[in-house]
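Lab notebook page, bench 4
Experiment: in silico fold of construct C2
Operator: M.H.
Input chain length: 602 residues
Purpose: comparison with the prior construct
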Amino acid sequence: MDTLDYGIVGNCRSAALISKDGAIEWLCLPQFNSSSVFASILDKEKGGIFSVTPKYLERTTQHYIPRTNILVTRFHCLDGVFEVHDFMPRYRIDKNDVYYTPPDLVRYFKHIVGDPEITLLYKPKLEYGIPETKNVIEHDYIKASTVKGPYDSLYMYSSIDLTAFDGSKTVKLMNDEFCLISYNQKLLHQDVRRSMLKLERTKVYWLNWAERTTSFKVFQEEIIRSALTLKMLSFDKSGAILAALTTSLPETIGEERNWDYRFCWIRDASMVVKIMTSLGHTRMARHYLNFIIDILPEKDEKMQIMYGIRGEKKLTEQTLGHLSGYENSYPVRIGNAAYKQKQNDIYGILLDVIYQHFELYTTSLEHSEELWTIVRNVIKVVANNWQKPDRGIWEIRSENKHFTFSKVLCWAAVDRAVKIAGLLKRDMYVEKWSKLRDKIDEDIHKNAWSETKQAFTQAYGSEDLDASVLLMESYGFISATDQRFVNTVLAIQKELEHNGLMFRYRNQDDFGTPKSAFTICSFWLINSLYKIGRKKEAIHKFKTLISYSNHLGLFSEDLDFETKRMLGNFPQAYSHLALIETAITISDSEITDEEEIMEFIN
């Protein structure tokens, strides 16, 4: 069963998916949201691939070099053993935080023993495979270029005979070799020694980055792997953070819930930044807040729910009709029409991050004033809109409702603004905004609570339950010991949990009734169960849930309720940030002795 058994390698400029058998099946260059050069994950015939096929293969294994984003695929063959080390170069080139992050992917072939025979198929399909792509050997590289339409090109350098990459003949691997795929023609001579140097420098970068991550008593390696993955989903050029690396991986096989997630959702990115800051990675937070300042330059600038990774505001959605889709799950989409939606929850999540920044760090006067201006403008928007319906966190395309989660996050926006005003000694705003905060609080308690369900529901006047409501405690709206929250958690668990996993909601949406489990919601339930005192149950569920990751500890957006196979876009920032948050909750509990907590977990 295919369960998205891919590894991800990246350098905060772009990233690639590499299958369990060592094939590059997804890569966009020169950056994350560019058109694909390899996309066989979306169409085996038309998408493009770079595969390595040993003639006498026995088995393959795959792992990351510990605490790095260098992926090792080891091929055990009857005639020998070799490894392919895949990575995208990333390392510091001077003392001023300047990094070498070219639009390159290096495949370092490490010879272990014997003389294994292999077949190499290098078959890029530029521009999503829409025009024809031709490969021509020129000098010391293979140049791929489009035949018609918009011009695009790609260069591949290798120490292996360049005539051997069309899959028509085998070559014997007797020494270390390299392949380098680049969007740009290289100015320096490329050889095995240079590729090894890039490998070692990239390894040192990731090891140092992982070492700066805050340590916790338990689940440390799971936290590190998720943090490394989230780092790869950040775009250094702007500070944006992607929701996921891919487009159109379906939430349910054969259906049309297929979306392009290669964009920066304010909600998702802000959640990631808060978690990464708690892990000690403050550079990501500063970089992201600069991104926010850049996309909101004017006081009347309306905040969108999402942007392109360079701050693009128009993200027109279109269908690539020539691609069959992942396991024939059509359509394949690029762009995302959700950018036009109104979602009032984004304000609270953004101001939560800005408050964290003001609380923890000294910032320049210029940035403090810019962020304070954003805070005041956001509260103006919240004051004018919190009583209006919106599309909600799940981006319902057909209907506006008074979603409880949106109301709670409007409350959170004003609450954080009050606290920021207090830190900045702006007493006039503290008094004014405190009244608005209390008004929203009263409205939620009055309209979101169902006496029938004995729980806070999905929307005002509704009896449907929604997993997002579990976050009301995390954002400080209600205490974990409040009986109303305890009742809400248990009601949501009873109604939305199925086979140990969680629905987002069960009521119909634009595309019918949801059929897969939304991974982040299962983490939210575990976190909430732990906080209301059901610790053993929560820890058992957490251990079970993380066992559903793929062989490298990576998660997508969704899980199938029955088979537990992963579905949806991959790897998913939402899933990994929730894993970290839940692991931290467990590790930071009142069980402070490591032996005691390990006994509790076991």
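Observations: The chain has two domains: 6-209, 212-601. DSSP finds 13 helices and 28 strands in the chain.
Next step: discuss at group meeting.
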